[in-house]
User: Which sequence fits this backbone?
């Protein structure tokens, strides 16, 4: 069992809705975090990320200028900034399966569907802090390992060539996307 | 300054991919052992409860924004700009309303989001159906607290969703794959594997 010293974590919250930023800030302060930076669109978020170098990014999806998925892809450019491995939790009103898959393929670390709860947010944060996943780099993808478990019933070909990578077992993103609190 | 050993990612290279294990920079925040003292989730919920006195005003403000976006569509018709404004207003309400204590308003906003997002030709979005959604959301907020409205609100919300889904089925009849995707369970259980 672990607990998290939130006082040692710095967060960047990116959401174009001031009410949602206030809610997230309130929850993070409630967990014990002191340092919460905010930005109200993707461009401001990227600038704040570069400037503050937060430990964890919480971003909305639908935002002006560029959206949360585009922001994620910019952060996940290897060599483009000091920490392309930063945990990114997408906090969004989108709940369709295809959206979750798009977000995963865009390099997000965790997915949290609005309306949010303190418990669901806490669980996402604990997971990215205590159970970090390795990153996979291919010609078309750079981001957290999308294989969260081994499917013993999978009968298709091994798509990663040259040997099997280690798999860190975690609950699938789609199952976690909505936590009933 | 030379990089510390634990600042360097370890990289395992395979034929068509690399497995990179970044330094565990957040390890410093992990404290072994059981929690001592107050539950952080309970503390956060209490902080949110203190904020709740603001929620009715915030919900009103979001409804005003939705109304303004509706007026813009009425005045200028559906364009990328007016469609985007209306969608953003509805989408924000979809995500926030339940937190603010208005879950049925969230359901109405979700139905409006579906209408706006999944109609292939935005100029064919029926304004009457948009009006019904916006008016319903505003009425529910206005009448919240009135007794005996639960059944009416539930029926209204359900009917709006039914009419929207019926319209979307017609509009997307030539796109069976898309239709299937928008009527799939919102969060199907499945593997997160590639």
Assistant:
């Amino acid at each position: 069992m672990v607990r998290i010293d939130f006082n040692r974590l710095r967060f960047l919250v990116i959401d174009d809705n001031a009410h949602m930023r206030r809610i997230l800030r309130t929850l993070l302060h409630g967990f014990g975090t002191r340092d919460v930076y905010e930005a109200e669109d993707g461009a401001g978020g990227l600038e704040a990320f570069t400037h503050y170098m937060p430990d964890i990014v919480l971003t909305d999806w639908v935002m002006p200028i560029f959206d949360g998925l585009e922001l994620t892809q910019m952060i996940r450019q290897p060599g483009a900034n000091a920490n392309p491995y930063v945990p990114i939790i997408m906090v969004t009103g989108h709940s369709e399966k295809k959206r979750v898959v798009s977000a995963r393929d865009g390099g997000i670390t965790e997915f949290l569907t609005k309306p949010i709860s303190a418990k669901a947010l806490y669980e996402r944060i604990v997971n990215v802090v205590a159970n970090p996943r390795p990153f996979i780099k291919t010609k078309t993808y750079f981001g957290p390992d999308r294989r969260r478990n081994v499917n013993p019933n999978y009968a298709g070909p091994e798509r990663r060539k040259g040997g099997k990578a280690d798999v860190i077992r975690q609950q699938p993103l789609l199952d976690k996307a909505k936590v009933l609190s | 300054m030379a990089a510390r050993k634990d600042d360097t990612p370890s990289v395992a290279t395979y034929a068509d991919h690399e497995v990179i294990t970044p330094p565990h920079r957040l390890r410093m925040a992990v404290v072994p052992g059981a929690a001592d003292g107050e539950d952080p989730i309970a503390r956060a919920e209490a902080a949110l409860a203190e904020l709740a006195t603001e929620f009715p005003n915030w919900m009103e403000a979001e409804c005003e924004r939705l109304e303004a976006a509706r007026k813009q569509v009425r005045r200028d018709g559906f364009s990328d700009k007016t469609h985007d404004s209306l969608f953003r207003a509805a989408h924000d309400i979809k995500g926030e309303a339940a937190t603010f204590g208005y879950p049925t308003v969230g359901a109405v906003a979700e139905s409006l989001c579906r209408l706006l997002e999944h109609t292939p030709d935005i100029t064919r979005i029926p304004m009457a159906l948009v009006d019904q959604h916006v008016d319903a959301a505003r009425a529910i907020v206005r009448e919240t607290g009135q007794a005996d409205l639960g059944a009416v609100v539930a029926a209204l919300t359900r009917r709006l969703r039914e009419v929207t889904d019926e319209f979307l089925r017609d509009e997307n009849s030539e796109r069976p794959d898309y239709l299937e995707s928008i009527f799939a369970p919102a969060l199907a259980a499945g593997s997160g594997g590639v």
About this structure: Chain A touches chain B through 74 residues (CB under 8 Å).
